[in-house]
Amino acid sequence: MNQPTPTPEAPAQRCGLIAIVGRPNVGKSTLLNALVGQKVSITSDKAQTTRHRITGVRTVEEAQFVFVDTPGFQTRHNAALNRNLNRTVHGVLSDVDVVLFVVEAGRFGIDDAKVLTLLPEDKPVVLIANKLDAVQRRTDLVPWLKSMQDRRNFSEFVPLSAKKEADVARLFKILKPYLPEQGWFYEEDALTDRSEKFLASEIIREKLFRLTGDELPYTSTVIIDKWEDEGELRRISASIVVERDAHKGMIIGQGGERLKRIGSEARQELEHLMDGRVFLELWVKVRSGWADTEEHLRTYGYE
């Protein structure tokens, strides 16, 4: 890529890849969405919500930040799905210029420690102490911070709340010097490298997890079966894939009410995201053992 010649009026362009890593449920996807300024990664209280490498892009002045949200490192199960998620994380870490290691402010458990041991030694690692708004007294963070510094020589320590715009703006300023001087990878207004079809399947899966709570095992996925554009209208047919008949019943709910609500909430969010009308049709299918079969994972779009 040809790099423009900098002038006194125009600083050299910067661009770099930034990985967002951490154990499940520390707020990685919420942070990515805040950094991009639009929802590109789904969020829920259920662990293992993010399953794919999701790229979010934000260009601020001469610097383009290319963020890669990763699945939380899986440390407890050895199913094919979990092995696939961990391969995704390792693949991301080999490519990036800087790593954001996200933990909850004031907390550091065994799963955080396992993730820390897997981070590359030859990359700058920025410690993100997220969910700062949940800490009652900031002075309590001083001994915790010292204990964190003893674990690794972090390049930066950034306490923040991903929900606060001022905190997110401050993070951009901190990260900018870590980006190499080179041309941008994407157009200035790009937000993600993912397709509308991918985002649709993820939004449906988010509503599925949020509306079933802990009842439904995380081994459920969403496949887009049909996508038709008719002017401003998008006709989408999607299948929710589960492993057991009992899971199918949980999703459909009494009289089909839960499935209707999943579809209604997903449709409303898709119409907002795509700025147009959406007709969404949902089906529930049982595919026993799909999450532990590499062939099924490839068929369902896992890298």
Automatic annotation (TrEMBL):
Alphabetized Pfam families for the sequence: KH_2, MMR_HSR1
Location of this chain's protein in the cell: Cytoplasm; Cell membrane
Binding-site residues for GTP, renumbered to this chain: 22-29, 69-73, 130-133
Region (G1): 22-29
Membrane topology designation: Peripheral membrane protein
Region of interest (G2), ranges: 48-52
Keywords: Cell membrane, Cytoplasm, GTP-binding, Membrane, Nucleotide-binding, Ribosome biogenesis, RNA-binding, rRNA-binding
Broad class of the protein's primary localization: cytoplasm
Annotated stretches, region: G4: 130-133
Domain spans labelled KH type-2: 204-288
Residues of the Era-type G domain: 14-181
The UniProt record lists the keyword GTP-binding: yes
Region called G3, residue ranges: 69-72
Region span, G5: 160-162
Complex formation: Monomer.
Job of this protein: An essential GTPase that binds both GDP and GTP, with rapid nucleotide exchange. Plays a role in 16S rRNA processing and 30S ribosomal subunit biogenesis and possibly also in cell cycle regulation and energy metabolism.
Family designation: Belongs to the TRAFAC class TrmE-Era-EngA-EngB-Septin-like GTPase superfamily. Era GTPase family.
UniProt cross-references to PANTHER family, sorted A to Z: GTPASE ERA (PTHR42698), GTPASE ERA, MITOCHONDRIAL (PTHR42698:SF1)
Protein name from the UniProt record: GTPase Era
Organism field: Roseateles agri
